[in-house]
Each structure stands twice: as C-alpha cells, then as structure tokens.
TrEMBL record:
GO terms for biological process: GDP-mannose biosynthetic process; polysaccharide metabolic process. This is Mannose-6-phosphate isomerase. Gene3D superfamilies: Jelly Rolls. It comes from the Archaea. The keyword Disulfide bond does not apply. GO terms for molecular function: isomerase activity; mannose-1-phosphate guanylyltransferase (GTP) activity. It comes from Candidatus Iainarchaeum sp. Residues 4-112 form the Mannose-6-phosphate isomerase type II C-terminal domain. The keyword Isomerase applies. InterPro entries: Man6P_isomerase-2_C, Mannose-6P_isomerase_type2, RmlC-like_jellyroll, RmlC_Cupin_sf. Keywords: Isomerase.
Length: 122
C-alpha cells in the first residue's frame, strides 16, 4: 500500500490495483478541458487544496517552483496558498478534486494571459 497524501492511497490487489483519492470528505470534482497551447492563470486559493489527475497526456503543471511534466493518472497535489498553473501542449483534460470550501471567487490571479483582473476578492 503506497500513501500519496493524507487520505490518498494506492493498493495492489491480485486482480490489479485501485487508487483512493479521498474518503468521506466534502469535495468538489471537475473535469478541466484545456485547449492546445493554452494555460490557466498563475493563481492560488486561500480556502481549498486541489488534486489534479491528468486524463490525457500533454500537460505541464507548475506548483510553486516545481515544473511537472504530468503523466496520465499521475496525481499532483496542490496545497492551498500554493502558486499553480496548468498548461496544455495539446488539447487535454484533467480531473480536479477540490478539498475545503469551494468558491469560484477563491482565486487570486498572479499572472493571466487573457487580461482578466488580478486578484479576485473573497
């Protein structure tokens, strides 16, 4: 049994394996679809942690100072207040699980190539 983070674990079974990402937690689950050559703003959240699970190849994740060339199914944990961004080399999807209080206004943008306003107030 391999621990990924807190409640997350990976368990091998005779028939294969399973990965558990949360247990009895209040979460918000989304699938983000990012167009080829596009990226999310460099941002952080005050009220929630996030777990990203790439469903397709082609993602580059930035979490604080780390650059991660994500593989399909490779979990990437983003603690609250961590600067983060996703970029897609080609059209790709990522499953996002948010832990904590979820509010779309809980986004502090540090850089945004689309010209959206900087900090979103909560």
């Amino acid at each position: 049994m391999k621990k990924l983070h807190k409640d997350f674990l990976h368990v091998r079974k005779p028939w294969g394996s399973f990965s558990q990402y949360c247990k009895e937690k209040k979460v918000t689950v989304k699938i983000l679809e990012v167009k080829a050559g596009e990226s999310l703003s460099l941002q952080y959240h005050k009220l929630r942690d996030e777990l990203w699970l790439p469903l397709d190849s082609g993602f580059v994740a930035e979490v604080d100072e780390r650059i991660i060339h994500a593989r399909i199914g490779e979990p990437i944990f983003v603690p609250r207040k961590s600067r983060h961004r996703l970029s897609a080399k080609k059209k790709a999807r990522v499953l996002e699980i948010a832990f904590g209080k979820f509010d779309e206004k809980d986004i502090v943008r540090l850089e945004d190539k689309y010209g959206r306003k900087g900090t979103t107030k909560i």
